[in-house]
């Protein structure tokens, strides 16, 4: 699936509207309620039923999948007092990663990459809102990135189960940054495969593959730079919603994000080296072909001329009547050809 | 219409003079007066009539179209106490986007892009002045970008109708930033079309089209970077003319502007990839042609030589009198040709 | 006239010496004395006579043309208490634009471009010193850039006549920045002309012309960047010599300077696009030539071989005695040629 | 050994796990206990035995080689109260160089390069923890970089023996930065060798060698930039663990690190010059070959045509019956050939 | 003499050792003692004799030439209380230019360029230490750069004679910055010469010369950037060793240094333009050659085919027996050739 770099529908304020492609049929809400002694999980498409069950004395994680059902958002927006602009940001699936602090919650937007078999990355937008006793996540489609977190939440001895919402929030961001590694790995192995192919026998389709790698890296870079900014801002603007301990962990995520960026820049360099390699290989291959022509032409042109001379029909051409004329002519031609071959060899032309 | 990147007429201070091309015949003033309970709209070319109607207890939006009528500006300048340098900036349609704060008003200059059918962007300069109870906009020609705002103003339940001038000001800037998206979309689809064309059959006019895309992106970039600066400055320099609520909305516009810049940088990368693609495709096409020549030449040059040898007129050439001379010569030539073909095939030359 | 980018004579401190080329024969001083009610203008080559006339109760503008007369500088330096290093800077006509604040005056160095008919820019260094009631300007040669200011000074209703020296200073800097526009315009029209020429029929001299444009832009950039810095420093370091009102005007000049830099960067991009265009056009032109050779060769080589075959002198060549041998051979050759033409056409080789 | 730029196993928090390739079979701990009057050295694979011997009144240096034995780390982590995230960082051998300050210790991660005979660098990660009376170093495999430090520790008149742990820490970081010089030297001599080879006779494998140099420099750069940052942070964030005197020495290491970076950037420039040289040399070599073909073709094509003309079988060709026909034809051909040679010589084609 | 960019001998602390090439045989100390009324100059290779003569009530300048005599340094280091690390920096002749402030002195390292006849720059390291009443300079070999300063010191009316050590220090730094101008001048004239050569007749050795220019500029840049930093740091960190007056002069040196950097960047641009020029000239030259081949081939291939046709030995070829057959065939061939020439001329192929 090829994603546009810029969404078509403008960003005009007004009614809440979904700006994106509908990528999953149904909208679902997964509601996980947890505390050290309690763990409940509800999946429903009835937002009002879910909404009534929320107990703000527990930790609550509401995970929304499928954003085209705008009504859900309105109800949630009212219940948790989310700013209208943030609801709009959630619906605009082409938003730049960012972090914003509100009085009662923190708002975080990022891109989430998934594993794919295909050539181009599969990614979606994820928005996260963390309040005092709730975490809300909004995704376009289901992804298995958070499965480990959910398994950890079920175990009553896990750190995430026994911590506040801020640690859950850290785990989510950590998973997002990790999702970049999967894409980078794919790029890494693609570069290696391509490099070997081009070394063996460069083909014109390799150029297209390199272009796709470049495009992939542009996409990753475009998602990772603002993500770093967002995490950095999250670190700097201290909020009572994030504990000191979790803040240390977020520092670790920041380190990973910087490492992802390092990797992206490195692969950009390697991809442009690959392009160089492709160019040089193609040109070397062509030169090899041209050289053979050149050498064959250069050898045969003079001797063909000699044959042409003795093909002339002049009446008085003394050589023609000589008994040894033909063998001598042949010898001359052979000597000429061999001489030129030696000359070219000496000049290291082949 | 091809716009100059630098206006010819210098920027010498002195008399107020229009520095630009006259792009619309008549100068018009549209005067919209609104408050929660009131909405009046006058269109006139008589500035003094309009001027007398202005009631600074209401919200007033004066929209000027056509800047070559300098007298209008002088009257307006005096009425609203606009600094002389700002009047000059309005008249110089080649000004860099900027924001400036004055005691009694804020001054904002930007570029506004319009949809076009043609290949190059259609854009104009827009200057905005916002005071306590008035918004003044100055454009070179009419554009339909603000139609939605005007429709919203007519509806007495819209937010813009029930807010102060600062919200109207936000809506105008928001529309300006949105106008960049239209141009970017065009660039985006042009790149896609070009990419497919070049993949199928590169032509030399594609180079010109890529150059035009580059030029378009240079123009967009040149307009968007200072716009971001201007909005950022507007955000930072708090003014009592902009309420806290509107300030949040302007933060949102800033985000969009950053996103536009991200898009521009991405398309620049893609355009230079396109250039690479064009170069490589052209060179591959040429190489394909050259290879055929090379192979045909390399095969025929030696056998033509053989034919030449037996075209020689030596009296004593024993092969010529052999009964099987001709078929054997032909066989040798065919074997030579086939042998070379095999050799080239093995070398993966075609 | 081709200017060196770095002056040969080092910058060793020591005696005051002129480091530059003497570009105007005689050194002249133009002394303009003005206040709201008074305007006197003296041109003389006798510095002492001029010096005695200066009345520091009026506004005084001393304009020096021709810097090789070091004695003038010494007298002026003593009279107005100019720092020795600044006198040296004035004499070194290869100085970087800069601004420096002294107790009793401000020192400003810039480059001034003049209109020329030739291909390369004509520019000179200008140093300006503004004190409480005097402005001193030092130029290498006469230029008509300041003519408008002088005309305005004569008119007793002009702002510059009725203001302090700081406004005159602003007008001078404004003229300097404007002088960059003239050079940019030339570059702009040169680029347009070259682009059309290269599109029509690229020639090898176009390359040289593009190089000259690049060099011109390097020169402009080298002069404009430090100029922006200097103006910015002038704006920031408030001095009682510059009034609040003039400061606003200098902000305007700063805007223009930024715009000039924008223009320079844009033209740099366009020039490198032009280089691309030239390269591609040359290569396309060459390819077109090569293609014709390729096609003609590829068609004639095989049929020339056939002709060669029937030119062989074997005794037993049954085709030669056939009645229809010749027409059939011709037919085969024609069919071969036409077939190849069709094949190439289908492959879109021409 | 070719190292991946990004490690495959994500960085998910959870159980302590080794993320890397196991490069040395056995895990060893080297424990050096020293003070002015004492020096003991134990090597063991029994961490508990070592742990019991540690006396925090002395200076202690524990050097771990081989990180796949996670249990060691757990014991050490508890004994010295190392933060869990730091233990994870030690195990992830693909970590970015960094410095972090904790209450009771400083944590430092860097890359250590070793001398190799091969073409690509041999490097490993090293993590250093310095506390009040201990230095812990964690390496993937043994390296002889620290041999000098150990020898100095044995001598009871050496500065490192008579100083606190901070000086030992300085010596370790100094050795790490020095290890970059060895890699740079290799790059330096490789560039020189390659340059000479390419000047003499460029080969297509040279391209691959240049690519490897580039890759090497990318790797060095990726390791050196964050190292500089880390040392800079170490310098700025004063800690009571680092004495004033040692701080001066660390400033010196910082200088060396900057110099390494200077070197890397310089070699990057030189490598891309080398690429230029390779390209130009290959193209010059090809051009030389093509020129010979061109000249030979251009000379022989016209005279071969003349030979062809007199090979025609027309009945009435008066020249054919002339007695001097053949010698004259030969003369004409020779004159033509010599004439063209002169023309090409004059045009400086060879 | 080709200098390495990175010195081989690491920078391990330990014994004072000379890390560099010995470029001058003998180590000399020149001791100049001066005050307004006194001037003594001693040259000796006996450091202890010199050391005993130093009177710290006067101004003293000790200039060391030849650094391989480490004992000298030890004595001086003790006498003037120089930090060990600084002594090491003096001995490591590959140090990065830097400035450091100590309690009792300032330490400054820079590169000094000398005039040479050869192609590559001749430069050496110079370290300067300025204390209350002494200036120490350490050089690898003698250079005539400071001759002017010494001459000025002898004259008892010169400013340097009548000032404190700080002015002498300024004069030395000023001479160092000036020394860059000489190298830049050489680069400048080399570029000009090369440009003309390439325009007239590009040769393959020009490429090597451009590479050397690039390398030269890399070297200059690598020396000038940290020098600017060092001077800037010297300016900012006020020290009682530098008087207010001298500080102004150092500001002037800073300006010159920035100008040198401007020049270096400009020449880098020009050098890469030169590379473009070389590439284009070579390619144009080659194209010119190829075009001649192309045109000659394209004209002769078809007419040679016609000659081949009438060289066939078919029995029934009616044209052969025609009386006008031969002249008509010749006419057709000539017309064909002329027609093609016209066609190529019209297409502007030559």
How does this model look, in words?
The structure is a homopentamer of 350-residue chains. With 350 residues, chain A is of the alpha+beta class. Chain A folds into 2 domains: 28-280, Beta Polymerase, domain 2 (2-Layer Sandwich); 286-346, Magnesium transport protein CorA, transmembrane region (Methane Monooxygenase Hydroxylase, Chain G, domain 1, Up-down Bundle), CATH 1.20.58. In chain A, 57% of the residues lie in helices and 14% in strands. Chain A contains 10 helices and 7 strands. In chain A, helix 6 (165-200) packs parallel to helix 8 (244-309), helix 7 packs antiparallel against helix 8 (244-309) and helix 8 (244-309) packs antiparallel against helix 10. The radius of gyration of chain A is 34 Å and the shape is rod-shaped.
Structure summary:
With 350 residues, the first copy, chain A, is an alpha+beta fold.
Summary keywords:
homopentamer, about 350 residues, alpha+beta, Beta Polymerase, domain 2, Methane Monooxygenase Hydroxylase, Chain G, domain 1, 10 helices, about 55% helix, about 15% strand
Oligomer: homopentamer
* CATH topology tier name of the largest domain in chain A: Beta Polymerase, domain 2
Structural class of chain A: alpha+beta
| Whole-angstrom Rg of chain A | 34 Å
Please tally the β strands of chain A and state the result. Answer: 7
Q: What does the overall shape of chain A look like?
A: rod-shaped
Q: Number of domains in the coordinates of chain A?
A: 2
> What pair of chains forms the biggest interface?
A-B, 57 and 52 residues
Gross CATH architecture of the largest domain in chain A: 2-Layer Sandwich
The tally of helices of chain A reads 10
Strand order of the largest sheet of chain A: 2-1-3-7-6-5-4
The overall pLDDT of chain A, averaged over residues, is 85
């Amino acid at each position: 699936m090829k994603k546009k770099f810029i969404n078509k529908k403008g960003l005009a304020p007004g009614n809440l509207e979904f700006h994106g492609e509908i990528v999953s049929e149904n909208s679902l809400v997964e509601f996980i309620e947890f505390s050290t002694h309690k763990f409940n999980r509800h999946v429903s498409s009835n937002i009002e039923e879910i909404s009534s069950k929320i107990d703000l004395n527990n930790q609550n994680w509401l995970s929304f999948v499928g954003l085209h059902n705008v009504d859900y958002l309105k109800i949630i927006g009212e219940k948790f007092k989310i700013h209208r602009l943030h609801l709009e940001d959630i619906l605009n699936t082409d938003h730049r990663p960012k972090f914003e602090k509100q009085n009662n919650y923190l708002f975080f937007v990022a891109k989430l990459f998934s594993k794919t078999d295909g050539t181009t990355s599969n990614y979606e937008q994820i928005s996260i809102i963390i309040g005092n006793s709730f975490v809300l996540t909004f995704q376009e489609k289901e992804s298995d990135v958070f499965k480990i977190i959910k398994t950890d939440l079920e175990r009553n001895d896990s750190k995430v189960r026994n911590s506040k919402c801020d640690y859950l929030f850290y785990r989510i961001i950590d998973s997002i940054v990790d999702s970049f590694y999967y894409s980078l790995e794919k790029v890494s192995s693609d570069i290696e495969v391509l490099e070997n192919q081009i070394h063996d026998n460069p083909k014109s389709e390799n150029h297209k593959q390199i272009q796709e790698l470049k495009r992939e890296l542009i996409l990753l870079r475009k998602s990772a730079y603002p993500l770093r900014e967002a995490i950095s801002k999250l670190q700097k603007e201290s909020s009572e919603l994030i504990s000191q301990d979790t803040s240390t962990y977020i520092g670790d995520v920041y380190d990973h994000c910087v490492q992802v960026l390092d990797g992206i820049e490195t692969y950009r360099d390697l991809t442009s080296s690959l392009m160089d390699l492709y160019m040089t290989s193609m040109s070397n291959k062509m030169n090899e072909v041209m050289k053979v022509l050149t050498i064959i032409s250069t050898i045969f042109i003079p001797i063909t001329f000699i044959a042409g001379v003795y093909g002339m029909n002049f009446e008085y051409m003394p050589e023609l009547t000589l008994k040894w004329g033909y063998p001598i002519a042949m010898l001359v031609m052979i000597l000429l050809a061999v001489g030129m071959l030696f000359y070219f060899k000496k000049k290291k032309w082949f």
